[in-house]
Amino acid sequence: MPHSKPTSKKYQKGETIQIITRDQIRSIKIPRDPSDSINLPSAEFKRIISASQVTTKEETEALKEAYRRKKEAEFKAAEERKRQLYEIDLSRTENPALADLERDAQKWSEYLMKRVNAEMEQEEEIKNLNKLILNAQCQSIRDQQIQEKKKIQAKLSKEERRLDAMMEVDRLKALETEGQIEELQKKQRVKGMQQLHHQIQVRLEEKQLQDVTKELERQHMQETQEKMNLEDLEALEKKKLQQQRLHMEVMRINAENIQAKEQRREEERLADLRIMEYNQRKLEQEAEYEAEQKRVKREKESVISRLRTRQEKVKDYMAEQNERHARRIQEISDRQWRREQKELALKKAQEEAMLRAARMEQVHCKERFLSMEAGRERADFNRVLKVQEQALVRQKEMEEKQREKALRHADTIRQQIREHELSAIAKRREIFQQAHELTNEDHERLVRLNEVKETKLKKLRTMGLSEKCCKEVERKARDCTQNPQCEEQQNLPMMHKKSSEADLSTTFLPPISNPAKDTVRNLQYSDSNTCLPPIRNALPQRSRNQ
């Protein structure tokens, strides 16, 4: 069976190509070079297909029954041939050997019969009948090829749908995976926010605890100071006898206080610059505190009115020192609290800045990744588009070359057809010139023609063609017998039938071996890769030229 070599690009085994459609891009792996394909006869292809299908028990029984019937028919045919051979042998034994003259006469009659048969084969009606038979055989083979092509196309379509379904499943799986990744990222973000909120709550609780601790310490210091004041009053009342020692202690304390005062003045000078703003907010508190101290002082003065003026001065001085000491302790505590608050705020700001920087870095990384992915996909798309454009250009060039080749070959075919027509016209003229000489032989020729036709038609039925095809050949043979001018209309009776189904670029004419092969060969391309549709496009020119 002739076949054409594919003109498409050769692919290496294991290579993948990308196919871009309207809504997706998919990669297909090339399992092997398509040029290595093998064309099988239809019988072998049907045998392989039937062997690859799993049959049921009923089908197996039916096949066995058909095989058994076939064997019985073959056995009966063999018995019939055996019987015929036996009868022939029996007839030979019954009839004596012929004489030499009879054998020569028999050989001469056989020779004449062969010449008559050869001349009958050259008759136009027999030629037309041979053409009809050849066309019927070609059409039968062509129908089988079309059916095989349809089956192959159906299988290819089924495989394409299966691949599309697989790609759809892969796409749904990818979407599901992407959704799971987004859900996981969302959970991680929520978890991070919860951790951050928890840290904020812990720090607020720590701050509140520190505030409560500081308040308790302040109250404790105040209570301690009041207790010390009461103890001092009791000590003054109980230790009148120790005034001298107290006086010496006071002098020593005064000296230390003077020295401490100088030092405190320097410290206060530096501290005042730092706590000026704080003092402005504490003026009201200090006023209340001083009023309270004055009230306490008045109470103390009423209590120690019995003391001497010197003791009152000492007490006033001690109260003033204690007040300053308490104020200094309070200021130190406030400065420490403000420093801690500032450190906490600075640390919180640094953490927030780090979180913002990390978030911005993640956003930038994602943007860069998306940009790189888009660039890569764009480059792949442009590369595939360029390859497809080059393939389209090459395909157009090949189609143009094939079209020019088909036109040239069509001209050659038309020339051959014209030559054939001229030859047929010349033959008909010779027949018309000799018609008056063949009047007596017409009856015998018609009888012989009918016998040959009947023989050929019976032989055609034994070839396995369909009943419809055989009846069509018989009808056209009768039409040609009744109307001799139908010869040119019957040259290609089957070529234009089912033109829509036969428009397949891979369906080729099978090689033909018969007495009229020279006539049919003129209708074929000399190139083994030339397919049938261009012949159909070229042959109708004959009727228009006529």
Automatic annotation (TrEMBL):
Residue stretches in coiled coil: 119-169, 202-302
A GO CC term attached to the entry: motile cilium
Region Disordered: start-end pairs: 526-546
Keywords: Cell projection, Cilium, Coiled coil, Flagellum
Keyword Coiled coil: yes
Subcellular location: Cell projection, Cilium, Flagellum
Positions of the Trichohyalin-plectin-homology domain: 120-465
InterPro entries xrefs: CFAP45 (IPR033253), TPH_dom (IPR043597)
Pfam family, one: TPH
Family: Belongs to the CFAP45 family.
Name of the featured protein: Cilia- and flagella-associated protein 45
